[in-house]
Amino acid sequence: MRRYWVVSIHTSAPALSLRAGSAAIAHLREHGLRAADVDIVPGAAGGPKALGINGLDQAVFGDFLPTAPRPRTLIGASIGSWRFAAITMGDAREGLARLAALYTQQRFPKGITAKEISLRCAQMLSELLQDRDQRILHNPDYRLVIVMTRSRGLMARQGGLGLGLGLAGLIGTNLFSRRAIGWFMERALVYPQGDALPLGELNDFTTHHVNLRADNVRAALLASAAIPMVLDGVTGLPGAPDGVYRDGGLVDYHLDLPYQSEGIVLFPHFTDRVIPGWFDKPLRWRNGDPQRLRNLLLVTPSRDYLARLPHGKLPDRTDFKQYRGNDAGREAYWRKAVAESQHLGDEFLELVETGKLVDRLHPL
To answer: Record's superkingdom (predicted)?
Structure first.
């Protein structure tokens, strides 16, 4: 494991917040956090927020987990799936740094169409993966699971009034019941054939299992990040039922799934809250199921850390609007956030190595 910077040089306030489910707390109090015990890693949707935890990702995948190689399942929606593709295609540190650089360099001028944004994202994915698709498919340590949604009804429209009405219906019905979004969206999980996923029964929404193959890995990654009205949905996805596939975060924003872990579900995340679906963000009463998340350890930037960042937050999609006409300023801000995130990784490694992580735990 690499040497960590002394966190106190940066600040006396903790950079990380640590929350855990009931079974995870009991396990960690007895054993501490051991890499060998981590068998599942979720990766949430969140767009540019991923840049703000890049240093934490690098510590987890570049230093911590490699100390105990073993088969692990990485379940990612939207940018979470892209983070995991960057990790599984080769050297984790190099891949994560490349993803951060490519994402930061993206520019979307005012008036750009969803089609053009989709083309630019496809080009970014091509530059990220290069010719390493097979490494993702055959990584001996990590099994990638890409989370998408399959659109139903008006949500299957590619834009305009029809899709807008579909979104309005989805948002409205979701206020009354999360299950109601099943009228508009279905879940699709794309992963290699083999052993069953370490998940309990998925009976909340219709769920499609699609075999991850060389001819669909890029299409699945694009679909997983296809935000309605921003990017076009993906059609003709090889091996999947016919339909229009979109951002996995619409249904599984923060991956509130029935994990069947034999140890610890390690969740490097953007926020200290697990929000089930994208449209649950403003619904403060709707959070992750404690039983589903009983084995989960949530590692996130602390409020003190966020307060010290430019604008007091992680990068997000609103920055494209706030910095419109000043792409150089936005890119400098995002690069600063990536650089600062190294402190998250350093503190994580320090807490693991000193055994002080247990002293910082709070229940989910």
So the answer is: Bacteria
pTM of the model as a whole:
0.95
Reported as a single tens digit per residue, the pLDDT across 270-307 is: 999 999 999 999 999 999 999 999 999 999 999 999 99
Cα–Cα distance measured from residue 223 to residue 122, given in angstroms and rounded to the nearest whole number: 10
DSSP string computed for 132-174: -HHHHHT-SSEEEEEEEEEE-GGGGS-SHHHHHHHHHHHHHHH
Distance linking the first and last C-alpha atoms of the chain: 28
Residue 7 pLDDT > 90: no
| CA 22, 275, 241, 135 torsion-angle sign | negative
pLDDT (0 to 100) of residue 196? 85
* pLDDT for the residue 2: 52
Q: Give the helix ranges, DSSP H, for 154-256.
A: 160-176, 217-224
Rounded distance between C-alpha atoms, residue 261 and residue 78, angstroms = 23
> Mean pLDDT for the chain?
94
Contact 233, 151 (CB under 8 A): yes
Distance separating alpha carbons of residues 91 and 214, to the nearest angstrom: 20
Q: What is the pLDDT of residues 117-175, one digit of tens each?
A: 999 999 999 999 999 999 999 999 999 999 999 999 999 998 889 999 999 999 999 99
Dist. CA 226–CA 158, nearest whole Å: 11
Cβ–Cβ < 8 Å for 65, 72: yes
β 245-247/38-43 pair status = unpaired
Nearest to 339, CA basis, from 98, 87, 128, 97: 97
- Which segments within the chain are labelled E, that is strand? 16-20, 38-43, 72-77, 142-151, 185-191, 207-211, 245-247, 264-268, 296-301, 361-363
What is the spatial distance between Cα 201 and Cα 266, in angstroms, rounded to a whole number?
Answer: 21
> Which residue in 157, 222, 208 sits closest to 184, CA to CA?
157
In the chain, what are the domain boundaries?
7-354
- CA angle 276/161/82 to nearest 5° reads 40
